Amino acid sequence: MKIGLIGCGRMGSALIGGIAKSDITTPADITVYDLNADSVTTLVQDSGVSAASNNLDLTCKSQTILLAVKPQYIGEVLREIAPAITKDHLLISIAAGVTMEKMETACPAGTRIIRAMPNTPALIGLGATGIAPGSHATEQDIKTARELLESVGIVSVTQEPQLDAVTGLSGSGPAYVYTFIESLSLQAQKEGLALDEAIKLATQTVIGAARMVEQTDMTPRELVEQVTSPGGTTLAGLDALTEHGFEKSIAAGVHAASERSREIARES
Ligand SMILES: NC(=O)c1ccc[n+]([C@@H]2O[C@H](COP(=O)([O-])OP(=O)(O)OC[C@H]3O[C@@H](n4cnc5c(N)ncnc54)[C@H](OP(=O)(O)O)[C@@H]3O)[C@@H](O)[C@H]2O)c1
């Protein structure tokens, strides 16, 4: 599979790093381009991929093109590559908030496009990505996008309207979890622990609890019940969390981020 990457920033480089190491393709079949020559050089040196001389050259050399520039530059990139897009191309865009309608309008009729919403843990191979097909994308295109993005984590296939909810959950989610770890640690410090030890314990607690959800066949609610005994410490903690609006705060956060994602898509 001939793969091209336009935009070798943090996210694009992480994706290509994962793809180059996977058995989907070989680095020799990957071409990259970025306006910033230093980013290209670093990626070429780190991953053994080749550099294209510009976006049009990259399009001619690739069948599957990952678009990883900032959302405001997607229109400009599509205008640049549109003359070289053929029926053999598949475009996969990770640009937040750039709608399928906008991209399909900027491309030749019938262009196959997939929209993806990864998150930053993709940088360490633990991403959670939602993907949605455009109106001309095939089942094989969804399979291709899934395989490529699975090289940096897990992938959930959905439809475009649901990508806003993906953004509100896993896209923005790492920041909620960082805030959670920070809050746990700061209070544990007030209760007497050294801050660095508290951060270590809080982080491992989040990893361990997440693994329990992943590796047992219990629901999160069943796991809560399993660790909560009448009159115990966990129940006291949970009651205080509910009293202070914990669940409602999280719901409001996911809703606000999903709404903001819908707004950005309307504005773009
Ligand atoms: N970071 C995240 O958590 C995250 C999560 C989900 C989705 N995304 C999406 O991922 C995309 C990339 O994000 P990022 O954080 O990796 O951005 P980034 O670090 O800014 O990387 C984008 C790169 O594209 C280059 N570029 C700009 N215009 C170009 C053009 N016309 N042709 C070729 N290259 C061009 C930029 O060069 P210059 O620096 O010279 O402009 C930059 O090196 C964004 O659309 C974002 O919405 C990011």
Number of E-type strands:
8
Estimate what percentage of residues fall within beta strands: 5-15%
Q: Tell me the distance between the termini.
A: 32 Å
Q: Secondary-structure element order, as H and E? A: EHEHEHEHEHEEHEHHHHHH
Strand count, sense and closure of the main sheet? Answer: 8 strands, mixed
Q: What global shape is seen?
A: elongated
- Measured as a percent range, the helix fraction is 40-55%
Strand-pairing-aware structural class: alpha/beta
How big is the Rg? 21 Å
The CATH H-level superfamily of the largest domain is NAD(P)-binding Rossmann-like Domain
Ions, cofactors and other ligands present here are: NADP nicotinamide-adenine-dinucleotide phosphate
Kindly give the count of domains.
Answer: 2
Strand order of the largest sheet: 3-2-1-4-5-6-7-8
Total DSSP helices = 12
The CATH architecture term of the largest domain is 3-Layer(aba) Sandwich
| Named CATH topology of the largest domain | Rossmann fold
Mean pLDDT score, rounded? 96
Poorly predicted runs are none
Under CATH at level 1, the class of the largest domain stands as: Alpha Beta
Structure report:
The two termini are 32 Å apart. The model has no long low-confidence stretch (mean pLDDT 96). The radius of gyration is 21 Å and the shape is elongated. 54% of the residues lie in helices and 13% in strands. Helix 7 (163-171) crosses helix 12 and helix 8 packs across helix 9. It is α/β, with parallel strands linked by helices and 268 residues long. The chain folds into two domains: 3-163, Rossmann fold; 173-267, ProC C-terminal domain-like (ProC C-terminal domain-like fold), CATH 1.10.3730. The chain has helices at residues 10-21, 37-47, 55-61, 74-81, 100-106, 139-149, 163-171, 173-190, 195-215, 220-226, 233-243, 246-267; strands at 3-6, 30-33, 50-51, 64-67, 90-93, 112-117, 127-133, 153-157. It has an eight-stranded mixed β-sheet, with helices on both faces. The site of NADP nicotinamide-adenine-dinucleotide phosphate has 28 residues, from helix 1 and helix 4.
